[in-house]
């Protein structure tokens, strides 16, 4: 194959990918652009570089969770433990640095392991038993949150370490916030898993029809296990980044984080009944949630109203998904 032919083929693939992305996410893209235009008129600060970077930094931690939550929901499951894992991983990492004098590297590894252990436990129980994922992760949510309170005595752990603070507050190449840099890496990995690996194809197959997947020879247990373990890891990363940004590990961190992640996933077009969804839609959904929260803050709207807005957004997204499925049947 000549160099010219290879170039043309590559351009066609890129064009097809872009067209497919637009087709799949046109509705939410239009809504996202309309929201940005509206907020730019309401607040002149909205489109400033500082505010845009702030939105990206704040949205990043939610999207860590949402990438893994997309896999879990495509399977037809749910993970309610991610918010509590954020708190636990943050206080463990902060506590090791502040109280034990551990190096940042050792403390971060310990924080990551705490999330992975809970994620692995969730995955094993979901895969090996008939207990619904909602119940399993509700239980581990309480266990992790309780462990965070027990470890800290209910008080924040102040961490004054330049190395630790850089994790969530630093910049890469002097302009890109470190949380956004991590997000790019996580997104690439998540997209590759779902679109380019056998595991990704099996996740869609199991979420679409578990019995058919079983009869086709897919090892259901392994497919069910991975997304929950991955979710625990992503929640631990989010917890460490948040603790770094707040200069402290806090047992109350991550309250409601699971709802934000679910909102991003559902708003991005992933079906709550499983079998369908894309990472691209999740990213846009996460950006919509982030921009909406930022816009309400800029308009000095009470933060309590944000819970109401997010609840309405989730309800609308699920309703739209139900309408799509109903139309597809006819």
From the structure above, extract its key features:
single chain; 330 residues; mainly alpha; ABC transporter involved in vitamin B12 uptake, BtuC; two-stranded antiparallel ribbon; two-stranded antiparallel sheet; 2% strand; globular; transmembrane transporter activity; transmembrane; EC 3.6.3.17; ABC_transp_permease
Topology summary:
Layout: H1 3-42, H2 49-74, H3 82-98, H4 104-128, H5 133-152, E1 157-158, H6 162-169, E2 171-172, E3 176-177, H7 178-196, H8 198-208, H9 210-215, H10 220-246, E4 248-249, H11 257-267, H12 279-298, H13 304-329
Main location: membrane
Protein name: Monosaccharide-transporting ATPase
Pfam families: BPD_transp_2 (PF02653)
CATH architecture: Orthogonal Bundle
Name the beta content range.
under 5%
> Order of strands across the biggest sheet?
1-4
Nearest-integer average pLDDT: 88
Annotation field: number of helices: 13
Number-wise, the strands total: 4
Number of domains: 1
Low-confidence stretches: none
> Which class do the helix and strand fractions yield?
mainly alpha
Main sheet: strands, sense, barrel: 2 strands, antiparallel
C-alpha Rg, in Å? 20 Å
CATH topology: ABC transporter involved in vitamin B12 uptake, BtuC
| CATH homologous superfamily heading | ABC transporter involved in vitamin B12 uptake, BtuC
| Alpha carbon gap, first and last residue | 45 Å
Please give the share of residues in helix.
over 70%
Secondary-structure element string: HHHHHEHEEHHHHEHHH
What is the top-level CATH class?
Mainly Alpha
**Coarse shape:** globular
């Amino acid at each position: 194959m000549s160099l010219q032919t290879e170039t043309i083929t590559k351009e066609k693939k890129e064009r097809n990918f872009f067209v497919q992305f637009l087709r799949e996410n046109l509705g939410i893209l239009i809504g996202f652009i309309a929201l940005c235009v509206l907020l730019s008129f309401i607040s002149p600060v909205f489109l400033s570089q500082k505010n845009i970077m702030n939105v990206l930094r704040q949205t990043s931690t939610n999207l860590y969770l949402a990438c893994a939550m997309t896999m879990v929901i495509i399977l037809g499951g749910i993970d309610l433990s991610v918010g509590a894992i954020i708190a636990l991983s943050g206080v463990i990492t902060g506590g090791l640095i502040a109280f034990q004098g551990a190096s940042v590297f050792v403390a971060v590894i310990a924080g990551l392991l705490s999330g992975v252990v809970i994620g692995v436990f969730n995955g094993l129980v979901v895969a090996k038993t008939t207990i619904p994922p909602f119940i399993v992760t509700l239980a581990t949510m309480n266990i992790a949150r309780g462990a965070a309170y027990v470890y800290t005595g209910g008080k924040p752990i102040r961490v004054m370490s330049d190395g630790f603070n850089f994790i969530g507050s630093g910049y890469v190449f002097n302009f890109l916030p470190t949380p956004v840099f991590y997000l790019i890496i996580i997104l690439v990995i998540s997209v590759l898993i779902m679109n380019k690996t056998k595991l990704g194809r099996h996740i869609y197959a199991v979420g679409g029809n578990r019995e058919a997947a079983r009869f086709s020879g897919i090892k259901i247990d392994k497919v069910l296990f991975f997304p929950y373990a991955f979710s625990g890891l992503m929640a631990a990363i989010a917890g460490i980044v948040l603790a770094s940004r707040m200069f402290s590990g806090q047992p109350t961190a991550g309250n409601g984080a699971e709802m934000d992640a679910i909102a991003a996933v559902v708003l991005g077009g992933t079906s709550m009944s499983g079998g369908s969804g894309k990472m691209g839609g999740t990213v846009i959904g996460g950006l919509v949630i982030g921009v909406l929260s930022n816009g309400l803050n800029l308009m000095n709207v009470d933060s309590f109203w944000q819970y109401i807005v997010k609840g309405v957004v989730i309800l609308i997204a699920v309703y739209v998904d139900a309408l799509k499925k109903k139309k597809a049947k006819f």
